[in-house]
Specification:
The complex is a heterodimer of chains A (724) and B (168).
Chain A lengths: L9 H7 L7 E3 L18 E4 L2 E3 L5 E5 L8 H13 L6 E5 L22 H28 L7 E3 L2 E4 L4 E4 H5 L5 E3 L43 E7 L6 E6 L1 H4 L4 E6 L3 E6 L2 H10 L1 E5 L8 H11 L5 E6 L2 H5 L5 E7 L11 E7 L2 E5 L5 H12 L6 E4 L14 H10 L6 E4 L2 H6 L7 E10 L2 E11 L2 H5 L25 E8 L13 H20 L4 H7 L5 H14 L13 E11 L2 E11 L5 E11 L6 H20 L5 E2 L2 E2 L17 E6 L12 H18 L10 H4 L5
Helix pairs in contact in A: 2-3, 9-10, 13-17, 16-17
Chain B lengths: L16 E7 L2 E7 L5 H8 L18 E4 L2 E4 L12 E3 L1 H4 L3 H12 L9 H14 L5 H8 L9 H13 L2
Parallel strand pairs in B: 1-5
Antiparallel strand pairs in B: 1-2, 3-4, 3-5
Helix pairs in contact in B: 3-4, 3-6, 4-5
Classes of the chains: A alpha+beta (724), B alpha+beta (168).
Chain lengths: 724, 168
Amino acid sequence: MSTAGAPLTRRSMLAGGAALAGYLVVGIDLSTNPLARAGEAPVDVSLNAFLRITPDSKITMVMPAVEMGQGSYTSMAMILAEELDIDLDQVRLEHAPPDRSHYVNPALGDQITGGSTTILAWFVPLRKAGASARSMLLQAAAELWNIPADALRTSAGLVVHDRSNRSATYGELVTRMSPRLIAPDLPLKSARDFKLIGTSAKRLDTAAKVNGHAVYGIDVMLPGMKFATLASSPVLGGKVLHVDDTRAKRISGVRQIVVLDDMVAVVADHMWAAMQGLEVLEVRWDDGPYATAFSDGLWSALEKGSAAAGATAKKKGDAVGQLAGARVFDATFELPFLAHAAMEPMNCTVHVRPDGCEVWVGTQAPLKAQSAAARSAGLDPDKVTIHNHLIGGGFGRRLEVDGVAKAVRIARHVDGPVKIVWSREEDIRQDYFRPLYHLRTRAKVEDGKIIAWHHRITGPSILSRWVPVELKDGVDEDAIGGAVETPYDFPNMLVEYVRHEIPEVPTSFWRGVGPNANVFAAECLIDRIARELKADPVEFRRRMITDKPRARAVLDLAASKAGWSTPLQVPKAGGRVGRGIALLAAFGSFLATVAEVVVADDGEVTVSRVVTAADVGTIINPDTLTAQVEGGVVFGIGAVLHGQITIAGGKVQQSNFHDYRVTRINEMPAMECHFVKNDESPGGIGEPGTVTIQAAVANAVFAATGVSLSRMPINRSLIAKRAI
Amino acid sequence: MCCLLFPVTDVTLREDTVISLNINGQRRTADVPPEMPLLWVLRDVLGLTGTKFGCGVAQCGACTVHVDGIALRSCQLQVGDIANGNIITIEQIGNTDTGRRVQKAWLDVEVVQCGYCQSGQIMSAAALLSATPVPTDADIDAAMAGNICRCGTYARIREAIKQAAKAA
């Protein structure tokens, strides 16, 4: 150990710490402090990868997950602040750089924000970071005052010794800290002592978002920066055959045209010139082999593909035997491609220099962005700097780094920095869509309960592209999400996955991921069975929940708050009314949603009311929780009522919000959200709300009309009064 | 809903002109073609990035500004047409009474999630309240249906508009 006041590098600390296995060596890393100039005292001190404090007590928190509206920045700051014992008004936030040694999401194995994992993954690590930093500050005060640390306490950024009426701010103490060992079992606060966690603390990112000051990736402005827009081959895999840029070059403000083998870009003084230039750029494409893809053909190929032998994801008892010959309930569900269509179109700003590459972007995967940029620039990853930003809506789109790769490939041909912004048309057409899924569900009932259950999932494997290893036993863990772990206890159960690739259409993670498809299918089949049996859908489900009391609790709470047993009022304007319920046990959480709909004579569906009950274990910020459920519901309503991407001649047919319809304010139901409070480990909430609403609405439409629908989005003509 | 698509004109030569605009109470000039949409003059030329690009065809409302108090989609406003207009953007709206009430309500109610659509939402809401100080739900639907929010903050937007109305 060095004497206090002599700066140590982490490297020298770790070298000396080899003999102390199991202990966390907390160094004070001054050597890489970007604000320190040679020969001067550093202006802020890094206590660990997540916390820096200045001598005047300004606290910077480095966020290991990105903020894309889900409130992660505030929730993570609350967790750090709770254990560190500071108020949130002293806090400044920073996006984490790509760094495999500190910011890998422990639930996902990479530096990724997604899968509704942020809180469940970072809850304990951030608490430990806050607690260990607090411990170091206590120790610094103890050494300064020559008083044992256990006689001291902390309070809102101060270390206090009551007996001698002394206190010191954290800022006063940071420069006096010496490196020390923190025991790995450093105690964390007990939940009953939480001052911040569990409160609806005001979000830290919102003030700048209501006055135009928040900087998203698309807002980056750099000296000498040019602006560009691009067009990739409209058919996947197509190539540029010929470009005539005569007219494009004459557009005032256009600086250069970049032609690559699979895309073109127009670089200009501003986006208007770039877009005008692209509009008059004459490009002939060799569409390539995928120009024969049409939606009808893709659906029928998927259906044929579903008959192939599947990989077993779960086998319990003898579902196949039980379902042979017996009176079996059998339903197939077909779910369409869906676009993400976040409000901030894809964009990426890049400056390629001979020795390095700087990237400004909003990404859910900074390490992947760094690798993609490095590959596209022909550089080592450590020569690539990624500046992350607030994201104007992720929903899974920003997990993919195609936007970064394309931008770097273009920027290599441009002098100086260039901001590449996709048009909305490009954003929709060059999306990585929620996959087409074919879901076949079968069940057998005995004594009023499902005793055999077969769920076969057919569709592309997103993970096969993401994780460069063979699927374990042919099973894609994402594709089977929500199908294997259900709230119910089925004595005989078979879940299978049939990998059916659709090379003509790129697919990726979309809000709700695997459970989006599987919970939809399961909950819809359950309702059809309940109707056949003349059983109440809530009671029928409750009967089959044996070992998941938390699932039963949210089911009962939602039903009770929705007034499930009370008759539904028919609105003055008329229409058929119905209620539907859906239950989810996924993402570490339990959620039940009741939807009430009105179906007009022409088949138009209005979702009039939505009641959700959620159990996410330990709640960090109740207001954020409500917001995520409500937002998820709106996103899901858009999917079940409107969303679909169709393909013709290999091209996406939709292009903007006039033909890719999304939910608007005038379609909003009345919404309520009720939470179960407990001290269980935190579960996720970003996605569950989107998952259950879709089945709840489909079930409500079924209740209202008697029509069970197999293909989404809901087809008005099939539930119009004349049709039935 | 009205959908305005920019006509593809076969203009082979576009000349920049010195365009003079009244933005947020200041005279600003830009050397740009007169048919250039205000959205891009604001963002790319003047560096006022609070007004957002979302669709370019007046379908999403993210680009909403005020011209002479009226909420308009700046992606469709040619700068040559609004030389005499009093243009207010999200950066300045907080200095007006309705803007201040709207922003305060937005924060009190915690409307914002990702926030990208909120500049446009706030501008539309402020214009609504200026024209209709106590809007009904139908008034709110009509004024705000052109502003898309993919995070789904609509319920809180409605609540915040009503709260801002009460604070007058």
